[in-house]
Amino acid sequence: MTAMLLCFMFSAVSLVLLHSSSASRVIFMPFPITSQAYIHVQMARAMMDRGHQVWLVVPDIMVDKNVLNTTGISVIQFHTGYSIEDDIVDELFLKSYLAEESMPFSVLCERYHVIAHNILSNEKLFQQMKAVHADLFVFDDNGFIAKMFVVFPYRLEIPFACVDFSFEPFDRRTAFSPATVPAFRSELNQHMTLPERLKNTLLFLFQLMYRPPWHYEDVVARYAPEMPYVSLDRLVARAELWLVHLDPVVFYPYPTLPNVKYIGSMAAAPPDPLESRFQSFMDNAKDGAVVVTFGSMVKNMPQNITDKLISAFLKLRPLKVVFRFDVTSPDPEQIMTSSWLPQNALLAHRNCRVFVTHCGKSGVYQGVYHGVPMLGLPLFFDQHENAHIMQAKGFGTTRDIRKISDQELADTIKHLIEDPHYKQNITKASTLFRELNGVPVKSAAYWLDHVMKYGGDYMRSSGQEMPLYQFLLLDVLGIIGGTVVVLLMLLICCLKYLCRRFCKTKFKRE
Fold first, then answer.
1. DSSP-derived 3-state class of residue 376
2. In angstroms, rounded to a whole number, what is the distance separating the alpha carbons of residues 259 and 315?
3. Which of 19, 171, 334, 400 would you label with 239, given CA atoms 20 to 30 Å apart?
4. Strand 74-78 relative to strand 396-398: parallel, antiparallel, unpaired?
5. Is the alpha carbon torsion for 190, 192, 196, 198 positive or negative?
6. Superfamily of domain 276-437
7. Its membrane topology, per UniProt (predicted)?
8. Are 165 and 245 in contact (CB under 8 A)?
9. Is 352 left (phi over 0), alpha (psi -120 to 50) or beta?
10. Which residue in 382, 151, 159, 148 sits closest to 259, CA to CA?
11. Within a 13 Å sphere around the CA of 454, how many CA atoms are in the beta-carbon half?
């Protein structure tokens, strides 16, 4: 008996040691806004389920507001100087759009510069990361300051993976054709006319040449002077893996490479249980409920917009409405208002009939995942493009929140419920999405785990090691172009010589 007990204890200890030896340390650093941080929290939890230790790097203001459930996750805080959600999105983007005014671009650049500098020059933050002894660094590779976060894994000399939300062929060195792939925010589809192909090609050329003024091209020289210099684009191209929030069901098929995984959105997942107040409200919505939210970044709206929305919701009786906004409901029995909503769980409820959304990518994917027709009221960033594609796919329709009346808004919501085509289209898309992608965050965790175990070199293209001018064959085209020019010049010289000889001979004969 004693021998059996000792054998059992030895086996248990062996299993623990085996598990701990396979566990790795992963740092997640999202673009510092709540919606992006939520995605990284989901990834972190999925990695914890696989036995890994995780750290989340987020702004102190986000921690102070307690907007993320980071239970069990080690959190590293930093100071940004400005809040992207309050001082940039709300104050600059949202107010400018709703007032139909041009955005103060110089103010935007100045604030992005401050945020980028405060993060990248934060030596205390770097030392905290260094103390983790991480095996992998995961960050958002988007067109804003987050792309420059690559300086941290470079200084730490550890592999890194990127999370992105769009098709970006140049950093990833992906071959593609502008004839079939719409440029980011072009609001084009895959079937383009000649003028649209011309527009799309010019947009990709602009994307290739444009560098946001808040990007430091000398980011390595400036913030990692102890490391060999490399340009920002070539450094990002060294990623072991890209996890991209796109897929062919909700968006379009995109060309790709083995280390670029199109997984859909990690926000699309089976729901958590609803809190009792939400559960009771949705259960009592026998005629159906409408979920309305403009995301975590929209905290304020002009009074006329808010009044218009509330007026439209009152016209929807007997439908009930759950509205994410900090405003007093005129009829709590019909309209439930809250500063926070469990969006994914509400969309999964059997009584949810329509999703009124700003068309953030996570929201669109959650709407498709749960098969809920959508009314898009886009505000800024990529939301207009997402709304355009959502409408083109037949998942719903889109309107301009500034121009639509309360009656038109109510009628549009009713139309989405009464026309069966929207529900049929999005139900089919939901089935396809689940069949192809399963639970996207689990796929993300699988691939992160995979590159930590085996590395990602075998998936990398040689193009990802090249300077961009070599990948685009600009040097080859230059040689060919130069050769053609030289040959044309020689031909012209020969023709001139022959003409002179011919004319001279003819003149002598005469």
1. strand
2. 50
3. 19
4. unpaired
5. positive
6. Glycogen Phosphorylase B; (3.40.50.2000)
7. Single-pass membrane protein
8. yes
9. beta
10. 159
11. 11
* CATH code of the domain occupying 23-268+455-464: 3.40.50.2000
Listed by start position, the domains of the chain span 23-268+455-464, 276-437, 473-504
Token pair for residue 358?
């700003």
Residues in the chain: 510
Which three-class secondary structure state does DSSP give residue 11?
helix
Walk across the sheet containing 260-262 and list its strands. Answer: 74-78, 53-59, 25-29, 136-140, 160-164, 241-244, 260-262
Asked, colleague to colleague, whether 23-268+455-464 and 276-437 share their fold, the answer is yes
